[in-house]
Amino acid sequence: MKMTFRWYGKSDPIPLQYIKQIPCVKGVVTAVYDTPVGQAWEEEKILTLRDECRAAGLEMEVIESVPVHEDIKLGRPGRDELIDNYAKTVRRLGKAGVKCICYNFMPVFDWLRTDLKTKAPDGSTSLSYNHERLEAMDKYDLHLPGWDESYKPEQLRALLDAYENVSHERLFDNLVYFLDGIMPACVESNVNMAIHPDDPPWDMFGLPRIITDEKSYEKMFAAVPQINNGITFCTGSLGAGRGNDLVGMAKKYAGRIHFAHLRQIRYSGELDFTEAGHMTENGDIDIYGVVRALVSSGFDGYVRPDHGRNIWGEDGKPGYGLYDRALGAMYLSGLFEAAEKEIGI
Ligand code: DNO
């Protein structure tokens, strides 16, 4: 296991040096942020970023994310060129020492929450999701917390309309087409793809979501069996789906889990949840059980803490402040050390 920490590049208020000071952290998870989605990342930008991390004593072996262009998800005619560009980025990243790329295949939106500052009795704040509130929103006029309104209203409308005819099956076929297109580059460059589950793991605003549970993984691995086609095991995202047996999945997919986002949530309704401190006792996800299952099943990937609360007066980027994620990283490392010693690794 290698412990990592997400870093948003130069605009991140958390300096690399602070990250280096967290005793267990070996590397950062970052990205080239200024290249439009769909274009290949320039080699020079990748190397500059890597060297900046290395100068701070940190590896850059994981990228999160190389975003997938909507035209690939929609299966539009221009997709082949976009997939070629993606493959180019994969090759360049591999050459720079990157081993794992986290990405997602969620239409239009990435993760969604309805509140970014839900206050706990101890004064800390965290992200939360309320399904009724989400359902009450107008999908054409969205102001979602945490969602950088990257689309102009007309663009959003056109995009949402374009998905009207995209069923779950079609979206899945488009994922397979994409993966088939980039797998040769991944195999050659020794880069593992790690798809992030849909967050939360159910359809949103009528948009299909396809990476939600064990069935999705079975289907995806059957269609694209190469080991370079793997997953980001995000306990918070998958855990929001009450039917998901996370300990069982950690065991079953340990060899396919190239990256693990280990975080905690507490259920507040059938489809509602609030994010919490990382410890098992802080919420409803059996973090200890997941770590034990990963270790005993031979997991050898990257790990990062995820979505920290705001504590100690910090007013950090939602989910990505320093303090609580640092606590999470240390807690998780302790669990891994104990599990590994117990099993004799
Ligand atoms: C949220 C993150 C996601 C993740 C992407 C991967 O905090 O886990 O935004 O980076 O879905 O592409």
CATH topology: TIM Barrel
Instruction: Figure out the total of helices.
Output: 12
Strands ordered across the widest β-sheet: 1-2-3-4-7-8-9-12
Number of domains: 1
Percent helix, as a range, is 25-40%
Shape: globular
Query: What is the number of beta strands?
Result: 12
Which class in CATH terms?
A: Alpha Beta
Compounds present?
Answer: D-mannose
Q: Which stretches of 5+ consecutive residues score pLDDT under 50?
A: none
Strand content: 15-25%
What is the CATH architecture annotation?
Alpha-Beta Barrel
- CATH homologous superfamily identity: Divalent-metal-dependent TIM barrel enzymes
Mean pLDDT over the full residue set: 96
Q: Span between N and C termini?
A: 11 Å
Assembly state (oligomeric): single chain
What is the CA-based Rg, rounded?
19 Å
Sheet of most strands: 8 strands, parallel, barrel
SSE order in H/E notation?
EHEHEHHEEEHHHEHEHHEEEHEH
Secondary structure elements and pairings:
Blueprint: E1 2-6, H1 16-20, E2 27-30, H2 43-55, E3 59-64, H3 70-74, H4 79-95, E4 100-103, E5 115-119, E6 125-129, H5 131-135, H6 153-162, H7 168-189, E7 192-195, H8 214-223, E8 229-234, H9 235-239, H10 246-253, E9 257-262, E10 264-267, E11 273-276, H11 287-296, E12 302-305, H12 323-343
Parallel strand pairs: 1-2, 1-12, 2-3, 3-4, 4-7, 7-8, 8-9, 9-12
Antiparallel strand pairs: 5-6, 6-11, 10-11
Helix pairs in contact: 4-7, 10-11, 11-12
